[in-house]
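Standup notes, structure subgroup. Blocker cleared on the iron/sulfur cluster input:
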Amino acid sequence: MTLPKQQILDWLTEQRPRRLDELWALADQTRREHVGDAVHLRGLIEFSNICQRNCLYCGLRTGNAKLSRYRLTEDEIMDCVGQAVAFNYGTVVLQSGEDPGIDLDWLCALVRRIKSETDMAVTLSVGEWEDDALQHMRDAGADRYLLRFETSNAKLFDRIHPPAPGQPKRDRMEILRTLRRLGFEVGSGVMIGIPGQTWSDLADDLLAFAELDLDMIGVGPYIPHPDTPLGKYLEHYMASEDLQVPATELMTYKVLALTRLLCPDTNIPATTALATLNTKSGRELGLQRGANIIMPNLSPTEHRGAYEIYPDKACIKDSAGQCLLCVTGRVAMIGRSVGKGRGDSPNAQQRRDADSAIESIGGDS
Ligand code: 5AD
Ligand code: SF4
Ligand code: FES
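Run returned:
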C-alpha cells in the first residue's frame, strides 16, 4: 500500500482510541494476508559488546568506560548455535558492536561452519564494513544482513552517530543498496523518539522503508541510557516540544502498524526494546499490530548484562531455554503458531522469483 506523507502524519499523531483500533485491525489483517499467522523465531547471539564508535545514544559506545567488555570465542558461539539447533530455530543472528578485533577471516570461517553444520539461515548484524568485506561474508554463506539507518534525517544521524575515529563518513543508505546488490536479504530500521526527531522525520523514515524495498524492518523506542550524552543531557538535544516525537510504547505500535501497511511482505520483529517498555505484553501487542518475528536471546546468561545498549533490557537474567519457553508461550497465548523453517521474507522470495524469470528469458539487459 502507498500512503501519502500527510496521511502517515495524521496516523502518527492520531489519539482517538477508536481510530487507533482501526489502524491495529488493518495492520493485523494485512500481516495475516501477506505473511500468515506463523511467528518466526530468530536466535540472537550477541557475540561482542566491543565497539569502536561513539554513538550518542548507545550504551556500547567506546566512551562508556563503565561497561565491561567481552567477545565470545568460536566455541562459545558454537555452543549457542547448538542450542538454536536443539530449539529448532530457523535462523541465528550474529550481532556485535563495531568491534575492530573481529577478524574478517575468522568471521567468515564461523559463518561457513554454521552453514555447513546446520540448516539455519545466518543473519549478520555487525555494523559498517567495506564493500569487499561484505562480499566475503556473503561468499561465506551469510544469508541476511541487518543495518539500521536509525533516522532518515541525515543531519540528525550525523549528530548522534559520529564516524569511527580516523575513518571517513559512510552513507548507510548506500551500504544498504550494496548489501542488496550482493544478494543479502536486507534489514534495516529506526529508533522512535530519538531526541531531535520530528514527526516529519519519522514519516520520512516510513517512506524510506518502502522505497528501500527492505526484507526486514526493526523499529523500537529510543530508551535513554544514563551513561551516554543523549541520555544525560536529553533537554539539550530535544526538538521543540510540539515537534519532538515521544519515545513511547504507543508510538512504537503506530510505527509498527504503518510499516506493515507500507511494506506488507516484509518480516517485522516485535523488538526487545518494545518488550523492555512493556514487559507484560509488549511483544504480544506488537505481534497483533503488524509484527511477525521474535528474536529470543541465545547469548550466554553471564554476558547478557554487559550487552547493555540501553538500561533494563528485557531477558537480562534469563537463559536461552527460558527465552524459548517464554516466547513460545506468548505466541500460543495469542492464538498464533511458531513458524517452521528459515522464514525467509516473502518480499525476498518474490525478488528471487522475478530475477530467475528475467534470467530464463535471456539476461537482464
Ligand atoms: N535505545 C533504543 N535502541 C537503541 N539502539 C542503540 N541504542 C539504543 C537506545 N538507547 C538500537 C539501535 C541500534 C541497535 C543495535 O540498537 O537502533 O541499531
Ligand atoms: Fe556501536 Fe552500534 Fe552502539 Fe553505535 S549503535 S555505539 S555502532 S553498537
Ligand atoms: Fe527472554 Fe521472555 S523472551 S525471558
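Discussed briefly. DSSP finds 16 helices and eight strands in the chain.
Next: hand off to the docking folks.
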